[in-house]
Amino acid sequence: MSTGERNWKGQRLLAILLLLLAFALSLYALRALSATYDELIDMGVGQYVWRSGDFSIQQMHYQPPLSYYVNSVFLPLLHLPANLNVDANGHFGFWPGRAILYHGPYSPDLPLFLARYPFVMIFMLAGALLWRWGKQLFRRESAATWSLLFFALSPTVLAHGTLAKNDFILAAMFLFTGASFWQFLRRPRWSWFVATALFCAGGLLSKLTGVALLAVIPAWYVATWYASRHGAWPVRLSMQRGLLWGALFLLLVGFFVAAGYGFHGASAWSPATRPHRLLDRAFFFLPGSTRPALYRLAERPIPGYDYIQMLLYQVHHQEVGHDSYLLGNRSLRGWIYYFPVAIAVKTPLVTWLTLLLAFAGFWKAQKTRAQRAKQWLRFAWLWVPIAAIFLPALKVRTDIGIRYLLPFYPYLFLFLGYALWVWQKRHWSKVILAGLAIGYLFTIVRIAPDYLAYFNAAAGGPDNGYKILGDSNLDWGQSLKELRSYMEQEGIASVKLAYFGSELPEKRGIRYQPLGCTRTTGVIALSSTFWQGLYMDDPHCYDWLHAVATRARVGHAIFIYDLR
Description:
By secondary structure, the chain is α/β, with parallel strands linked by helices. Among the domains are: 3-35 and 117-262 and 323-327 and 335-427, no CATH class; 471-563, no CATH class. The chain is 54% helix and 6% strand. The chain is built from 21 helices and 9 strands. The strands form 3 sheets. It has a 5-stranded mixed beta sheet with strand order 6-5-7-9-8. Strands 1-2 form a two-stranded antiparallel ribbon. Helix 1 runs parallel beside helix 6 and helix 17 packs antiparallel against helix 18 (409-424). The longest helix is centred in the N-terminal third of the chain and has 30 residues, at 3-32. The chain is globular.
């Protein structure tokens, strides 16, 4: 066996071990954590859409349906209740998933596990694809293994790759789209073309941010076309052919998006809002008897208009803003520096050190003009999606979580992997890189299973996170089961509870009384979201507890006060 074959097999074994470790850490989180705030909404909506095919419900204005389909893959295996609390107007009770968790013959943990497990499978598939594409992208197995290490053990990726939500689905679709488009441009085959369109449509059907792919893909093509003109690409590309491909691509993506909505059509104009004056002015020369036919034509359902309605709602949501928290301040308008701060404190220090090495080492391979062109091409493929996600995020007003940046993480880790391979060629650097890998592994094992609440040491660690960020960066309702375990261990029979989440504490075996705004005694359990004053009629309700020392922090997200 040659040295190259032994190295390839060794790197493949390392990749498998990393994926198995990530899988074990994911299962640990599935077992230990309760449902997050949004999951019980999405589970109920998913079951309703899965059964009825009705896309006219209110929740379809909030987000596209792909994550609803995914969370419902295994739930039909259970005998779930038929009544999901939907009224005649298509409005749900606020948490329709409670019927799935609590009104069936099973423990609440079983349907929650089945809803989350497909997302873990996608997480594993994304990790395997990232390693394989990284190997092709850089022609170095060790570079791909470094990329997989940072991806599979990232606290942010692990936190959202184990939840029945749409954030990681979008990140996976960004990765799948890039990998398939890369293959298509190297070997122009219809299978890769259709796969790219399918994954791009999957991104659009995951979240509003998916529309960034419609800008990223042309940028990738232009960068690759430029590289092909300098001998840095195996296939000669042309702009004329690219324009034809682009037109066909948009048609195919539109078809897949419409299919995602079951080709259900929605009306752009209702009888109350039909454009009488516009039609009357445009067709003034027609007899009045033809006007009703024109009105009926304008009111016909348009396939895919559900998606447009969702986009319009989300744009309106951005204009209105969202209750947000940053560095002790609340705002509905957001901050332009919110996501830079979030990245700074939610990224492990090992990753920051690696990023510095990456920028220093990425350009080491530049020698000839063709090599420089290849290097710039790699840089474009990895940093265009990063910029397409990060730059618009600076202006959004829904500053509620670093999860909005999740799609660029795979590309950032691919960049880190290749740059570290460049450094690895230096003998003296192997000890440093081994130390980085061990430190990174220690970071994630230490925080498990509370990946959502991770903050790096420079920010003061997870227990200091409540002073910096809130919502899905720290406390999303995921620590209710940990609270029950803490009460059992400490012999606490009952607490006065203010819980930010969608689950019912009594269904998790927690005896409690609601915590009011007035001073009280006893053992108090307070979600850090309410400590920050978010989503409350009186944001100063619990200010009196700010000066009281905590007894413990459950899951780094729930404060325990002992005032007995």
